[in-house]
Predict the 3D structure of the following.
Amino acid sequence: MIFLFAILWYLFLGWVVYQFQKHTRCFTTWNTFTLFLSLAILSHGINVPFSMSVNKALGVAISDGALVQFAANLVLMYVSILLGVLLVNRAFRYTPTQKFTPDPKLGINPLVFWPVVILFNILLIYKLKTATINLDLFSFFSQSLSPEEYKAARVLFGKTTSSEGSLLLYFANIASLAFFPCLLFVFYLARDIKKNVIITGVFWATLVLLIYHSLVSGHKASVLFVIVGLLICHNFKKGNISFAKTLKLPLVLAGVTFFLLLPFLYAVQYSYLNYWEALYSVWYRLTIEPNRVLQLYYYTYPEHHDYLLGTSSQWVARVVGTSVMPPHSYIPKMVFGQWRTTWNAIFIGDAWADFAYAGTVLFSLTIGILLQLYNIWFSRSKKTVLVQATYVALIINALTLATAGMLASFLSFGLLSVFVLYLFSKELIWLKELRMS
């Protein structure tokens, strides 16, 4: 039975890849679906048929009904995202293109840009000083901390910068995750247009701050996001949005990340692992663990907890005045008795916890529409530095949909808030031009 399911699943997955390539060109050009879909297929595609018993092997009795819901919702996710793309393409009469011509302009008002950069850097320094007192780079690289101490430091950092702590630190945390990468990409792309020491110096200072923040906070993904974003920016600087003829870059990038960078970060965090054990940990974390965790959402809702009706997001919970524990915290703590941890899943986990099948379809359709609207916006805009940097940030931020809820990706991780910042900057440029006239 498992082999029949595997055959049908891989045929479906092949169809998904073909359709998204046909309607978005996401596997030959850089766009908002490229990294998100690649990670989604890696985490919730390749190993799905052989992950159905992973929880049972760990002593958790997942029912057959929950496993069917797990597989059915993944199918609904891919199909609904694709439907969103088709609806947008039809409404805007859009045909994907691989043409790209950079505009040799900044596209941003320096009078606004510099104060924003200074403010964000001050916030990041304040956040690092306040929230990382128990962990420094010497401890990180010397491996003088045990895995338990390292985990405790991460928990402390997360609690200190959450909405339950200081609002200023909470905003600083959102700024570092959502806005800082975009600002960094602006600096990187602007260096060739405005050749001066200030832009170069601020670029390197901001890069060092971001890397330091990622390492001491334990948020390893942030380092990878910045590195990948800078490589995409480098491609854009050459006037190339396509990698159809140059698969060397993404293949080398994927290989270095999988075989070197991620095993290194695991070996640093868990000093007792050798290279092969660290490599297997990477494979397990990318292809097995995501499916194990996602299955638990269908195991928990509604068997152990009623549907949340939108309050899986802490933003929504505050608006409606409730203190419902979000799924990523409720499942490990209340169902399995594991404290000081969170189990995040791809966005359809929260969608299911909120509204069952209707949530999966609605959230997936929304994401398909939004991501394709971003692609159309970029395709039809002048490719100034600000536009390019914003688009690269959106490409990177879309990755978080594979590991977090939709509203968290939109607001905390910048998938929507970064574009709002772009619109704000653009509006101020218009006001300045109006005053000059």
Summary: The first helix runs from residue 2 to 24. The CA atoms of residues 346 and 402 lie 4 Å apart.
